[in-house]
Amino acid sequence: xxxxxxxxxxxxxxxxxxxxxxxxxxxxxxxxxxxxxxxxxxxxxxxxxxxxxxxxxxxxxxxxxxxxxxxxxxxxxxxxxxxxxxxxxxxxxxxxxxxxxxxxxxxxxxxxxxxxxxxxxxxxxxxxxxxxxxxxxxxxxxxxxxxxxxxxxxxxxxxxxxxxxxxxxxxxxxxxxxxxxxxxxxxxxxxxxxxxxxxxxxxxxxxxxxxxxxxxxxxxxxxxxxxxxxxxxxxxxxxxxxxxxxxxxxxxxxxxxxxxxxxxxxxxxxxxxxxxxxxxxxxxxxxxxxxxxxxxxxxxxxxxxxxxxxxxxxxxxxxxxxxxxxxxxxxxxxxxxxxxxxxxxxxxxxxxxxxxxxxxxxxxxxxxxxxxxxxxxxxxxxxxxxxxxxxxxxxxxxx
Length: 399
Ligand SMILES: [Zn+2]
Description:
It is a single chain. The chain is built from 8 helices and 21 strands. It has a domain at 229-399. With 399 residues, it is of the alpha/beta class. The strands form 3 sheets. The chain has a 16-stranded mixed β-sheet with strand order 1-2-3-4-6-8-9-11-13-15-16-17-18-19-20-21. It has a 3-stranded parallel β-sheet with strand order 10-12-14. The two termini are 45 Å apart. Bound molecules: zinc ion. The site of zinc ion has 7 residues, from helix 7.
């Protein structure tokens, strides 16, 4: 930062504080320092640290010097610190000067080794992103409702102890927490759980009666849950075929209302014929499925993919398939209600319900981009659905 810019910036800040600014978003440096000599120009101005009007403070690319005599941000409710250099002492002083804090985010703060947050009765949300030097993370917040940990060194025991002391948590996100191996999450209040790319995780035992949304990305793990029917499950597995382990994982999801599945390749959602013959459809009660394939479709036949997805969930009401960039296709299905399972059908002999082949009444397709697939889809449904009454297909061009 040039000296003239620095003076100008201080002037603007002074004016904002005089005007009792409520939300302050301050980014002093880009990712790298301009020069070692200019470090002082990135120091957080002292005048901000006693501004009683500030309610939300986003600070990015700055340095907290250790010599601030007084920090008093008595109205501050939300504090975001990203790429802020500081030491443990100044962090403690800062936090003790923010008694009304409700939300805090800390990420990439060099110099910070020990985070110990306590005496903040209003604190409800903590987001801890990667902090390269962090060694100890302790938080005592009896009213905490939301915790996000990313690239943070926490163990199974730490998580267990933490959750047993913070019973009000409604939203928990664990991202790239690579020390976690076997976790047990037990909570009556948890509504939303995200577990993403925790590389060493092999087992998750979820005891959460009120869980509503689950997001899982990573390797297939041993999974058990007693949650009621979830309104939404989002999945992203590592690239691998849909094998027995994955199918068992899907079956443990307890038929969410919506399954949103993100995959790199189509093959990862297609179970082998041999497995389909010996296993029941794992999500036979799921009514909405959204599949996003992060790859171009190429010459892959849509009906083969639809066939595989209708094996996973054989009574879908809506199916939406999106390929990266170039194509999407949506299906709406309706069924005849009054058909009862009277004889053994080979296709659904392992299910407590009939599959679509015996009760599908109408199919409505909207296809956008890609090549026309009307004939193959119409042939597929008319030869497989025993009582099909109507097949509609509409091709749309990209706008
Ligand atoms: Zn059947």
